[in-house]
């Protein structure tokens, strides 16, 4: 391993520096004056925050050569040097691992998919290690170090401890994933719930940029929800904030794996839809593709199942909007393949359940490939590296809603 030079030092981040960095990451290049306006920091505080990051090469300042001619001296712009560091992001499902190598601006430089032969930790962990080693080898060609590894996984994940408390699709309980993976790879590791990780990426780079309050609802194998409140991704005191998938809508409804009945997930997640279509049609439907095909061929039983799923999702979003009042709800996930079947149910149930002006919430559809989930994992690694996760835990007031 080559020695670490001063140019390769890890920055010591203050809350102000973290705020400036994430603002430039989402909105840059910006002038220092614009950074101050967006962050509500003084000009002196911005200069103090920017200086060490520029000395270490994470931020760059220069004149915008493409700007139109203007009277007087052109203002310098500051931006994040994406090529200054690399990060690995992994999305672990019950069947495969999706991996990306991303730069400091979270742009995907390469991606990999690896099929899993089993779901036990003793099968998944060696697969993770081998995949990380492959990407570390590929990263050599970029000439900069991989500074962190982010892992996104479904279920109850304690990010602070790096422990997967419970992952229903992997059937894991209390797996110290960060500790085990760090020991195997030699990298700093951040482990987070997959929907929260995707929410980080949407907050920084996607449909949530510039918003202080929004929610990301994912439909597919499960029903997930990530929340941004006062400009930060929140997980709650016990790490399970936003679990609308386990909002019980019908106490007499179908049983859910969580132990309750009538949960949104027990009605609208892919496995629940397959079971319901099988029961409604009497046909041996084995997967979502077959269920979708039946519904698209106008089978009334199958279409009724999707209509009920849409209603459940719409009611859950209505409850979410009533409680938190977000500016936008983003709907994503692999389940959007059936959106044409449950869109009307979502709209009608949301309109019926949203109270008063909450119904003005902007609901947008945003299909995203699994590489974006892995990119979200890389974003959590960038958060940890730049100290932004610590900052977001402490602050709820400094983020601006600049356009």
Describe, in plain words, how this protein is organized in 3D.
By secondary structure, this protein is an alpha/beta fold. Helices cover 41% and strands 21% of the residues. It has 13 helices and 15 strands. The strands form four sheets. Strands 5-4-3-6-10 form a five-stranded mixed β-sheet. It has a five-stranded mixed β-sheet with strand order 13-12-11-14-15, sandwiched between helices. Strands 7-8-9 form a three-stranded antiparallel β-sheet, covered by helices on one side. Helix 4 (121-139) packs across helix 5 (177-185) and helix 8 (270-281) packs antiparallel against helix 10. The longest helix has 25 residues, at 300-324. 45% of the residues are buried. It comes from Streptomyces olivaceoviridis (Streptomyces corchorusii). Belongs to the ROK (NagC/XylR) family. InterPro entries: ATPase_NBD, HTH_MarR-typ, ROK, ROK_cs, WH-like_DNA-bd_sf, WH_DNA-bd_sf. Residues 13-62 form the HTH marR-type domain. This is ROK family protein.
Q: What overall form do the CA principal axes indicate? A: globular
Rounded to the nearest angstrom, the radius of gyration is 22 Å
Strand content: 15-25%
For the record, give the distance between the C-alpha atoms at the N and C termini, rounded to a whole number.
44 Å
Please report the number of helical segments: 13
Provide the residue-averaged pLDDT.
Answer: 89
